[in-house]
Amino acid sequence: MEIFNPNSNVNFLGIRKLSIGVAIGLLIASIVLIATRGLNYGLDFTGGISIVADYEQPVAINDVRNAMVSIHVENPVVTSLGGTREVSIRLQPTQAMLDDKGKVNLDKVVAVVLPALQAQRKDATIKSRDYVGSQVGEELRSDGIIAVILVIVGIMLYLWIRFEWRFAVAALLTEVHDALVTVGIFALTQREFDLTVLASVLAVVGYSINDKVVVFDRIRELFRLARKAEPEEVLNRSINSTLSRTIITSLFTGITMAALYFFGGPVVHGFAITMLIGIVVGTLSSIFVASPILLWLGVSKQDLMPKTRENPELARRP
Question: Which residues form the domain of 162?
């Protein structure tokens, strides 16, 4: 299936100064936003109260969420636990849930939450309640950052082995760009950033590199087939010949994420939105950023030709 002519010759590299300039601008803006505005961390990272409520009959998640909103709880996280009669509620404590010293009092939590739940449904009971401190959230935050770094470095090493070091560097720079711009948009909009969003950032990194590997494969193939083509021409032809595949994959993945957002409920909103942002950013960087970086690094035919052990001179011939 092709929506663009694979033999077209759109000069993507001709606007490389503009595309790289825009990418650097977005990267710097994202770093500034993350450093100044920060992220609106969810309960997974900041800590909070965890409650398990039990019902005699099936209950709707929205009813439980509305009950929490009625007692002025902001952004409660409500999820089902293995069925429709037991739900998990995570929330930040309100003033009414604190003791005289400003610390969370779990008895007061139950005294505030249970009447609100029973106002919606008389069969509501509190099965368990607990408080998770901010120290656990800090550990999760640092572990998440380490996970993203390890994923990006692992991808770079893989590309170094599969292709050549210039491809690894190009992938590293574009993956850092894609991840930071995606997170920067969350800093700009102040949408809640929780473990679900962090997981989707990791998914964005994997999705984005998949697009780039397809283009890199075509670059290697065309370099080996072309006898006298200049690197810029080969890179342009590679982008054009894989453009349909890139756009179709991104389009259908985006449709899937949009369906997940509209029909999957509030619990998966963060994941779906992050993926949608990452798909757009990753697709644009695959087309407009990765190949210009390769050209800037000086990739050439000789770098991708098979090496002959018996006669190194032959390996350098076109």
Answer: 12-40+137-315
Same domain as 295, residue 242: yes
Mark the ranges of the chain whose per-residue pLDDT is less than 70: 1-6, 82, 133-137, 301, 303-318
Tell which of 132, 156, 179 closes a domain: 132
As to burial, measured by CB atoms within 10 angstroms (0-12 exposed, 13-18 middle, 19+ buried), residue 9 is: exposed
Q: Say yes or no: 149 and 267 in one domain.
A: yes
Q: Are residues 141 and 36 in the same domain?
A: yes
Alpha helices by DSSP H, listed for the chain, are 16-36, 43-46, 61-70, 106-120, 134-162, 165-189, 195-225, 231-263, 269-288, 290-297, 301-304, 312-315
- Secondary structure in 3-state letters for 34-61: HHHCCCEECHHHHCEEEEEEECCCCCCH
Residue 79 tokens read as 């999820």
Last residue of some domain: 97, 112, 132? 132
pLDDT tens, position by position, 152-203 = 888 888 888 877 888 888 888 998 999 999 999 999 998 888 888 888 988 8
